[in-house]
Amino acid sequence: MSTKTAIIIDDAENARVALKTDLMDYCPEIEVIGEASGVVEGVKLLKQVQADIVFLDIQMGDGSGFDLLEILPEINFSLIFTTSSNEHAIKAFRFSAIDYLLKPVDPEELMEAVKKAEKTDQQHIDVLKGNLGPSPKKLALNSQDRIRVVNLNEVLRCESNGSYTLFFMSDGEQLLVTKTLKEYDQLLENQGFLRAHQSHLVNIDFIKEFNKSDGGFLVLKDKTEIPVSSRKKSLVMKVLTGVG
Prior knowledge:
Blueprint: E1 4-9, H1 13-26, E2 30-36, H2 39-48, E3 53-57, E4 59-60, E5 63-64, H3 65-71, E6 78-83, H4 87-96, E7 100-102, H5 107-115, H6 122-130, E8 138-142, E9 147-151, E10 155-161, E11 164-169, E12 174-177, H7 181-188, E13 193-197, E14 200-203, E15 207-211, E16 217-220, E17 225-227, H8 233-241
Parallel strand pairs: 1-2, 1-3, 3-6, 6-7
Antiparallel strand pairs: 4-5, 8-9, 10-11, 10-14, 11-12, 13-14, 15-16, 16-17
Helix pairs in contact: 2-3, 4-6
C-alpha cells in the first residue's frame, strides 16, 4: 500500500487531534506531515510543504477555507473539506462533486473519502462557491475524460445507462456521466426534477403534457416521449396539477 501525505487545516485543536488520531487508526497509509490553525497559517504551510491530501475546515477564526484557496496560486492536491452539519453547505458539496466530511468524522466515511481522493479541479471549487446559497444553480458532472459544469435549468432530462447516467441538455448536447440515475434522483428531487420512471428523470420545466393513453407518458417541449411507470402516475399527476 503506497503512502500518501496529508495536511490538516482547522482552527479547532480538538478537531485536528481527533482527525489525526482517526487517520492513524483507520488510514495507516496516510502520513500527516503538517497542521495549521487558520487561513494565514495554512497558506504559509501549503507554500512550504507539498501534500497529497489537504483536510480543510470551512469556517475558521481568520476566514474561510475558500479564502485560503483563493490565495493559493494553484490547487495541486486532493481536497477534502471538513464541516459541521450545515444543510446548505452539504447540498453545495454534493452538487459540486467535492468530498466532504461531517464533524465528528465517521471512520467509514473517512476511509472512503481517502480511498477515492483525486486532485481537486478548480471548476469544482468555482461551482461549490456558487452553490453555497439556499438553492444550487450549477452541477459538476464527471465523465470519464472531463469535468463539465452545467446550469440546472439547462438540463432537459436524465436517462439511466447501466451504472452511468446520460444527461440530455436543452441545446441537444448529451453527456455520459459516471454516476447512477438513483444518485441524481436523490440529488435533484427537490430541485424541480421528477422521477417519472425507473430509467427517466425529467426537468419539470420542460414538460409539455401528460398523455394518459398507452399506459401514460410525458411529452417534453422537444417532443421527446418519456414513459410514466404505473406506480409513478399519481406522483406525476400531483406534481403537474400542483396538488399534494
